[in-house]
């Protein structure tokens, strides 16, 4: 019974990712708020990748529990990933944002926007902060991605008092235009 339940969870996770990928494809073709399944209360707003690590994740609207069960979530009230300002993305440390433990300063992260354009960001730093340090969501300063997950990565219990936060700042090409090359 336990093996069957484990297999069901894996199959459900695989199916959800396939449906989210299809919804992202519809988004790239102009559909607004393309829900991955009819009863979903979220939809993909961007695609996040860490090319150096071979990681690609769909960022979902909302950073609530029902959204981040299926992928990293965009925090409402902050700019959509790829727009000017501080875009905050949260997710689980043991699934969709587990790769953050391998991200180092200097690494490049990319955001694919709903219009198909790509914006590159360079990781400046990562820090372990108290979960009450809400200053990480403030909008002052340059355009950036702020990625937040629980810490420590190997904790037995989720939702402790610490958060692992990665700060990545937008790259611009030599002409000062947005782009994927710095």
Q: Overview of this structure, please?
A:
- This protein is α+β, with helices and mostly antiparallel strands and 182 residues long.
- 17% of the residues lie in helices and 31% in strands.
- The protein has two helices and eight strands, in the order αββαββββββ.
- The protein has helices at 2-28, 65-68; strands spanning 44-50, 55-61, 73-74, 86-90, 108-112, 118-130, 144-151, 162-170.
- It has an eight-stranded mixed beta barrel.
- The chain is globular, with a radius of gyration of 16 Å.
- The termini are far apart.
- The relative contact order is 0.14.
- The mean pLDDT is 90.
Descriptive keywords:
about 180 residues, alpha+beta, eight-stranded mixed barrel, 2 helices, about 15% helix, about 30% strand, globular
Short description:
This protein has 182 residues and is α+β, with helices and mostly antiparallel strands. Helices cover 17% and strands 31% of the residues.
Poorly predicted regions are: none
Mean pLDDT: 90
* N-end to C-end Cα span: 52 Å
Q: Compute the number of strand runs.
A: 8
Helix proportion: 10-25%
Please work out how many helical segments DSSP would assign.
2
| Radius of gyration (Å) | 16 Å
Sheet with the most strands, sense and barrel status: 8 strands, mixed, barrel
Morphology? globular
Topology:
Layout (H helix, E strand, L loop, with lengths): L1 H27 L15 E7 L4 E7 L3 H4 L4 E2 L11 E5 L17 E5 L5 E13 L13 E8 L10 E9 L12
Parallel strand pairs: 2-3, 4-7
Antiparallel strand pairs: 1-2, 1-5, 3-4, 5-6, 6-8, 7-8
């Amino acid at each position: 019974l336990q093996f069957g339940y484990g297999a069901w969870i894996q199959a459900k996770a695989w199916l959800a990712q396939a449906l989210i990928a299809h919804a992202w494809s519809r988004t790239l073709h102009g559909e607004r708020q393309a829900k991955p399944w009819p009863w979903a209360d979220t939809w993909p707003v961007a695609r996040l990748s860490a090319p150096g690590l071979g990681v690609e994740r769909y960022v979902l609207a909302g950073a609530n529990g029902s959204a981040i069960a299926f992928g990293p979530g965009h925090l409402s009230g902050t700019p959509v990933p790829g727009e000017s300002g501080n875009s905050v993305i949260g997710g689980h440390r043991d699934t969709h944002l587990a790769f953050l433990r391998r991200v180092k300063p200097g690494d490049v992260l990319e955001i694919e926007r709903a219009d198909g354009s790509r914006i590159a960001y360079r990781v400046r730093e990562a820090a372990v902060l108290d979960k009450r340090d809400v200053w990480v969501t403030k909008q002052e300063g340059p355009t950036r991605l702020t990625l937040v997950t629980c810490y420590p990565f190997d904790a037995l219990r989720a939702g402790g008092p610490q958060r692992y936060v990665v700060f990545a700042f937008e790259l611009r090409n030599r002409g000062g235009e947005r782009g994927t090359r710095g």
